[in-house]
């Protein structure tokens, strides 16, 4: 089952349960899918493209929540975090830091990278291989740490 059809089913469930937080998050996700479907050719989206959209929305929610909490507005940060957790159910299990470090170390070894100048090459491969399993910021931090050290 594609993520889009799963979202539609979840919307129905949230409406029946009168779960406004889930409903708001799911409707935002469905809206993003519809926007992506209408912006290009009439080709159905791949699962990787659907995952990118989900990741983007989760990242937006976390960024908003961190800004709100920095400003002491927990009343606005908490709904953002709740929506992010609803959206995260559509993402594959995220890698732990140890798993991420191990995966990136093997990418560095196979690509022959040795200095921080090779970061772009490693990031390109790592971002493609680890899409959906880790966010870009975490990948970047681990790559920097491994190539600098």
Task: Considering the chains and any ligands shown, give keywords for the structure.
149 residues, mainly alpha, globular
- How much helix is in the residues? over 70%
Radius of gyration: 18 Å
What's the overall geometry?
globular
User: Which residue ranges are poorly predicted, with pLDDT under 50 across at least 5 consecutive positions?
Assistant: none
Q: Summarize the main sheet.
A: none
How widely separated are the two ends?
43 Å
Helix tally equals 7
Helix and strand element order? HHHHHHH
The average pLDDT value, as a whole number, equals: 87
Strand content: under 5%
Number of DSSP E strands? 0
Structural class: mainly alpha
Descriptive account of the structure:
The structure is a single chain. It contains 7 helices and no strands. By secondary structure, the chain is mainly α. Helix 5 (about 95-110) crosses helix 7 (about 135-149). It is globular.
